[in-house]
Amino acid sequence: MPVLAARQLESTRIVETIDLLCRRIRERFPSAGLNNVCEDLLGVARQARQRSIQIGRPMLGIRILSATIIALIVTTFVFAVMLIKIPAQTLQAAELVEVIEAACNTVLLVGAVVLFFVTLEVRVKRHRALQALHELRSIAHIIDMHQLTKDPERIVGKGSDTESSPRRTMSQFELNRYLDYCSEMLSLTGKIAALYVEKFPDAQAVAAVNDIEDLTSGLARKIWQKIVILHSDPAAAAPTPAAVASVPAQGAAVPPVIS
């Protein structure tokens, strides 16, 4: 059992991680719009926990309805076949072709109707999963919009701003944390998407989840390129006299890691 649990995503842990991330963003950037996006992501994660359970659970109502209709169709078809009387005289070639064509069309029509009801439950679950995944795709693009104007070159570089340039309101450290928060949110968005196919391995749903994971990975890759640029300035990386003075002496208590 522990081995199986280690191979499955735990929706509760994902919700707890996003909730902690929301608090970290709120404490670091209390007035940033990223707070609202993270709160929306938290709400979607809580809904995903319930939705994924519902999608993975058998839909007994649809199964009973489909089985009843299929039984009626098959019974009617068999009864109709039994009522057919084969004539004693020999059929002409044209008449035989018409009989075979009519029989094939009837069998194909009955088979299509039966297939429709057999796959009804899967198609309903797939529709719900794809709707939820579309919501996650929109959130991923919104996260990308929030980091779009956070340009590290304006901190590392020496160029001047124009009238239309975004305002510089963050230090190098704050911008690094902001970009890192966006990267974490994108990664968690992909984890939420994976919840929907944890117990529903439908091919189309799995393909949609893979698309979202590719999207979030690509957007996170762009963010990490910005973080690399942010730390590429030797002057910014060199410790200042104030920073050197603030380094604790050997044996002194070390402050906790900043979130």
Give an overview in words.
Keywords: Membrane, Transmembrane, Transmembrane helix. The chain has 259 residues and is mainly α. The protein has two domains: 8-58 and 122-158 and 170-235, Glutathione S-transferase Yfyf (Class Pi), Chain A, domain 2, CATH 1.20.1050; 60-120. It contains eleven helices and no strands. Helix 3 (34-56) runs antiparallel to helix 6 and helix 8 runs antiparallel to helix 9. The protein is elongated, with a radius of gyration of 30 Å. Residues 236-257 have low confidence and may be disordered.
Essential attributes:
259 residues, mainly alpha, Glutathione S-transferase Yfyf (Class Pi), Chain A, domain 2, 11 helices, disordered C terminus
Distance between the ends: 34 Å
CATH class of the largest domain: Mainly Alpha
Radius of gyration, in Å, reads 30 Å
CATH architecture of the largest domain: Up-down Bundle
Low-confidence stretches: 236-257
Shape: elongated
Task: Give the count of helical stretches.
Answer: 11
Number of strands: 0
Series of secondary-structure elements, N-terminal to C-terminal: HHHHHHHHHHH
- Estimate the strand proportion: under 5%
The CATH topology of the largest domain is given as Glutathione S-transferase Yfyf (Class Pi), Chain A, domain 2
Keywords: Membrane, Transmembrane, Transmembrane helix
Transmembrane segments: 60-84, 96-118
Brief summary:
By secondary structure, the protein is mainly alpha-helical. The chain folds into 2 domains: 8-58 and 122-158 and 170-235, Glutathione S-transferase Yfyf (Class Pi), Chain A, domain 2 (Up-down Bundle); 60-120. It has helices at residues 2-6, 11-28, 34-56, 60-83, 93-118, 120-148, 153-156, 172-195, 203-230, 234-237, 241-245.
